[in-house]
Amino acid sequence: MNETELIELACKGREQAYTPYSGFRVGAALLTRSGTVYLGCNIENASYGPTNCAERTAFFKAVSEGEREFEAIAIVGGPGEGRTGEMCAPCGVCRQVMMEFCDPKTFRIILENGGGKVRTFLLEELLPLGFGPDNLKEAVPADSRK
Ligand code: THU
């Protein structure tokens, strides 16, 4: 699975975006270490707060299917059906969810602007000094972790 293929799958995920309030449609394609890809889209809500971003949709689908090891995520987004040429970087909440399940030194975040421009970041670049499971290693007794 190369970056171009993963971006194409993110565009496919975007087709399902449910965005009656913002009209800002986002798609994500999350690649696991074993090669499976989980798609995600943003899912909005009339009460606004429960809105789920495309990235978290993909992560929660994968984790709920037993996946725990991830390589990369491609993200595409923009207003309306088309794309404006802007990249859609993950929000802070999604970066924190990535921090829970991914190695910040190797997990790649692939962004594409709709015009073929691709930029790839490591999670540690987008979430420097992130707080994650390792920070709680000493705090949580080993036998109560899962
Ligand atoms: N959104 C995402 O799905 N992912 C991002 O990385 C940024 C924002 C969604 C949430 C909301 O449905 C819409 O975009 C506007 O914020």
UniProtKB/TrEMBL annotation:
Its cofactor is Zn(2+). Transmembrane segments: none annotated. It holds the Pfam family dCMP_cyt_deam_1. It catalyses: cytidine + H2O + H(+) = uridine + NH4(+); 2'-deoxycytidine + H2O + H(+) = 2'-deoxyuridine + NH4(+). Residues 1-134 form the CMP/dCMP-type deaminase domain. Zn(2+) binds at residues 53, 91, 94. GO terms for cellular component: cytosol. GO terms for biological process: nucleobase-containing small molecule metabolic process; pyrimidine-containing compound metabolic process. The keyword Chaperone does not apply. Its EC number is 3.5.4.5. The active site is at residue 55. Substrate binds at residues 42-48. It comes from the Bacteria. Keywords: Hydrolase, Metal-binding, Zinc. InterPro entries: CMP_dCMP_dom (IPR002125), Cyt/Deoxycyt_deaminase (IPR050202), Cyt_deam_tetra (IPR006262), Cytidine_deaminase-like (IPR016193). CDD domains: cytidine_deaminase (cd01283). One of its GO terms (molecular function) is zinc ion binding. This enzyme scavenges exogenous and endogenous cytidine and 2'-deoxycytidine for UMP synthesis. Belongs to the cytidine and deoxycytidylate deaminase family. This is Cytidine deaminase.
